Amino acid sequence: MRRGLIAAAIAVLASAAVVTAAVAKTSEPAGLAKADCTSSTLGFMGPLTGPAGFLGQEQLSWLRFGVLRYNTASGTKFKVAPGDTQLKSPVALTVGRKFAADDNIWAIIGVSESQGNVVTGNLFEKNDLVMVSGSATRTTLTTPGRPYKTFFRVVPNDSVQGPTIVKYVSGNLKAKNVVVIDSQDDYSVPLAQGVTRGLRARGAKVARESVSADDTDFSSIVANVESNVTVVVFATQVASAANTLSNQLREQGKKAIVFGTDGAYSPSQFKPKSGYVSVFGPDLHFDPAARKLVREYNTYSKNRPFGSFGPATYMAGLVAMTAITKACADGEADRAEITKAVGGTNIPSIIGKNITFTRSGDVKGVDFLIYRVTNGKYSPVG
Amino acid sequence: MDWDKIVQLLVNGVTLGSVYALVALGFSMVYGILKLLNLAHGDVLMVGAFIGWGILGWLGGAQDPSVAVWLLLVLMVLAAMAGCGVLGVAIERFAYRPLRRAPRIAPLISALGVSFFIQNTVLLLYGANFRSYDTVDLVDVEVGIHWGPLNVWVIRLVVIGAALVMMVALWLLVTRTRLGKAMRATAFDREAAAMMGIDVDRVIVKTFFIGSALAGAAGVLVGLVFGQINHFMGFNYGLKGFTAAVVGGIGSIPGAMFGGLFIGLADAFSVGYIEDFTRGRLGSAFSDLVLFLILIVFMLVRPQGIFGKPEVKKV
If pLDDT is split at 50, 70 and 90, which confidence band does B315 have? Predict the structure, then answer.
């Protein structure tokens, strides 16, 4: 009995020691020893597996492509460390802690999904680790009052996407009866609420529905869609779900078409007979000025399909590498200097105007675009 | 009353119910004989879905199949049934048989372990991206019955029909064949059945084979009608199939069929009407709340289920 108590006490003390060490390491402020400026690592955080895995894989591929090009042109030796968030906040936090504690990581490219930034923003801020996201659009990541001081994004936020969708649905499609569906996460709920408010303010009748991000059957939701509804706005990060919804609307003889938000942009997964999708950056396939780059990427990736997510993450990586190179001009740098250098970025962009940031970390002067999808073929319309 | 909506929800409910019934049958058959909840059963459905997807790809894919569509569907279902049947036998042999005399919690934990093992094996082999059957490329969604408020895609008719055929075949097997008699005898009293000369081990193996084959077929049907499959889809179908088995009366085959249909309809109608019944307080996202409330009510009011018999304990 006594031996048992002693053994239990030792076990408890040992566990406490492990936990304390783990917590201490991650809360240790950055401003670590100066970097090895000749080679540093970018930590990519995004869903490499799970329902949005194909998006994360596209982003990682373009990031690696960008790093290769930059290294070749500049003689640097940047590396990429992938961190799979699986589109789940607890997993993103685990990956974030690992990256924050890794002295070799000098910038986070991501987190791809908005909810991942919500759970890691404070952690990275405490560690002075800059985050440059190529796809997180939730408005409250930068406003009000800049909640995460080291967070930047190269894509416009939902305060732009929401009104863009409202303007098009109301003005161009002249929809008077709309259904807005969210997928119960930090990305889709605020966006869906914003779109709903905007459409109602313009006199449209809006019904709200909600599905789980894992759902694959929407047939009963579709049964709720009235016959006079012309547009179903679906805020989702799973493009194949938008495709299924579109098919089931047609199956039940509904005339409503699906208008997907940027998470649905995927020529390989969302290919309805008729639909629309908004996205934060131009699809390079439609840009004559990007033909050479697209050919280069196709050679690098062996013709891997891509949409808008990859090029935006390419730019996020470029922003980080340019900032690290600038901070390292005197031969050494730390994370805080790199974060400051990112804030002062002004570089040409393949997805629009030059990348410069506002004081809150948002990219300046970039709009959301609308694409029409007809029999799976995408064409820009707004 | 919106009859268009009611008719459509009926169609959706019967489609879902057909799948849940096939899953529930597997649960009921195994529980009836071994008094074991096979928690890996939903994952067997998932494996069936992936086998079907593999056969579809091997035969040219939905865009350009190398055989006639009807033959393609039959081959997908048969391959999934065979593959999952073998998987079920393997699960019984290695995860449950050694624990037959162990306390009842042991095979339950083993079942959980098998479930995680299967999920992660598929994750390792196929990755975690959703896979698509692209059934719409095989048969367009507008092909089917369009009559007044009734809109039924032909694939849904195939799913409902196939499930019905399998249920009838199972019922005939259980009631009209020697194997069926042996299964019923083993379920009634395993020891007595053994004393009567029935090879109980062999009966159990065949039960697992049949139950798992039905789950495999259900996996293909799910892929066909809903288009997407992934390595964690088995959990949801397993849970609802289990609920159906309990509501119908676990251990009862007619109960599993009825329970599946009941839960499928409850699922569809709760999504369709929960907002109306709660005056907007709860949206369609809370439909599972209704389903599992039904389960709790059944457990409290009629724990043996609709077709089940109260457990008699000999003193």
Answer: low
Is A216's CB within 8 Å of B233's CB? yes
Q: What is the pLDDT of residues A51-98, one digit of tens each?
A: 788 889 999 999 999 999 999 999 899 999 999 998 899 999 999 999
Give chain A's count of helices (H) and strands (E).
11, 12
**Tens of pLDDT, residues B296-312:** 888 898 888 888 877 66
User: What's A41-156+289-365's CATH class?
Assistant: alpha beta
Q: What is the rounded CA–CA span in Å between residue B259 and residue B270?
A: 16
List chain B residues with CB under 8 Å of A264: none
Q: Which is the CATH superfamily of the domain at A159-279? A: Response regulator (3.40.50.2300)
Question: Does the beta-carbon distance from A219 to B230 stay under 8 Å?
Answer: no
> A8 pLDDT exceeds 70?
no
CB A111 within 8 A of CB A99: no
Residue B128 to residue A86, Cβ atoms within 8 A: yes
Distances (CA, A) of B294 to A114, B240, B243, B246, B253: 36, 12, 9, 11, 20
Q: Do B284 and A219 touch (CB under 8 A)?
A: no
Q: Is A217 within 8 Å of B226 when comparing Cβ atoms?
A: yes
* Residue located via tokens 């031996």: A3
Nearest C-alpha in A relative to B235: A214
Tokens representing A175 are: 């929809």
A144 touches chain B (CB under 8 A): no
Phi first, then psi, for residue A210 (nearest 5°) are -145, 135
Bridge partner list, B147: B150
Burial class of residue B70 in the structure, from the number of CB atoms within 10 Å of its CB (0-12 exposed, 13-18 middle, 19+ buried) = exposed
Domain boundaries, given as residue ranges, for chain B: 18-235
Q: CA separation (Å) from A41 to A54, A109, A345?
A: 23, 10, 19
SS3 call for B81 = helix
CA A269, CA B130: separation in Å to the nearest integer? 10
How distant is the Cα of A48 from the closest Cα of chain B, in angstroms?
8
Mind listing the pLDDT tens digit for each residue in A216-250? 889 999 999 999 999 999 999 888 899 999 999 99
Mean pLDDT over each residue of chain A, to the nearest integer: 89
Cis peptide before A144 (omega within 30 of 0): yes
| Residue A11 in this model has a pLDDT that exceeds 80 | no
When pLDDT is cut at 50, 70 and 90, the band that residue A293 belongs to is very high
Instruction: Identify any residues that bridge with A132 across adjacent strands, giving them in sequence order.
Output: A109, A152
Question: Which pair of tokens denotes residue B277?
Answer: 């019944």
In tens, the pLDDT along A19-33 reads 544 444 444 334 444
Hey, where are the domains in chain A? 41-156+289-365, 159-279
In this prediction, does ipTM exceed 0.90? no
Helices (H), A75-152: 89-100, 114-126
Query: Shortest Cα distance from A188 to chain B (angstroms)?
Result: 14
Q: Rounded to the nearest 5°, which phi and psi values hold at A271?
A: -135, 65
Each residue of B56-69: pLDDT tens digit?
A: 999 999 989 999 99
| Chain B residues touching A263 at Cβ < 8 A | none
DSSP for A31-93, written as a single string: --SPP-TT--EEEEEE-SSSTTHHHHHHHHHHHHHHHHHHHHHH----EEEEEE-TT-HHHHH
Report the C-alpha gap between B225 and B1 in whole angstroms. Answer: 28
Token readout for A119 is: 């759970």
More confident position, B73 or B4: B73
Residue with tokens 């849940």: B20
